[in-house]
Give the backbone structure.
Amino acid sequence: MPHLTRRGFTLVELLIGLVLIGIVSAGIYRVLVNNQRIYQAQTQRIEMLQNIRAGAAVLPAEFRELSASEDDIGAMSATGISIRGMRQLGFLCVPPVLVGPNVVLTVRRTPIYGLRAFDQNRDSIFVYYEGDDATRVDDGWVRGRITGVGTGLCLDASPAVVLTTSLFFDAGLGQTPVTGNIQSGSPVRGFEPVTYRLYTSTSDGRSYIGLQEGSAAIQPLIGPLTSNGLALAYFDSTGAATNTPNRVALIRMTFRAETQQAFRQLDGSIARAIDSVTTWVALRNNLRY
């Protein structure tokens, strides 16, 4: 039987093997790097699109409830708007006595719709005024200030939120503080002054849509955006552009967002991606008569 001997690799063979391993490793590394870049780019784009969708959801939902014809818009510009932000909706379950400076409103605890509970330090209210049942001329809202929040019972003994208020009746609209003119079952709306505007954050120098509630400091709500990331335009019921707050019937909103980080684009450059969306909202609560 012939004797087989084991032959070692020559230096040339080792060099060739190392070169092949290097080529394969470089290819694998390049695939991994490209996959990582694609993943980062997709992640950045997804976050950017989420910002755009947030803007197109939050602001229209807030604006839709406005009654510009009843002064719900305080100030407006191309990059910001100050409004009455509606925060609660409840219903009276006891006819209020409209005598004296402090009117007690008993609001049924269930259902109460809104973002949070009534807050005497933040909220004002509207309560619906029926007045004369035979005419709608005097129908409307009485504005008030909340001076106290407590608990109580409705006429049917169900739980209630008791609001101590100071109401302001508008005699020019035929509103008089006569018991019976505001009835049980009337809706009560809580609101606070709210401003949405484009601003530059001092923390990172980026542009955001900020939310300012009452006198609180502005907080970033949507972003980051481009420096022209919010554009608002206002139109009346005929579709004509208007700068008069109480004539606004439509609001057009354009959001321009950019990615949080820069990444390599298809042309090889390193930059942030930018996308935009435009949406319209019609104000539902303007007076129709």
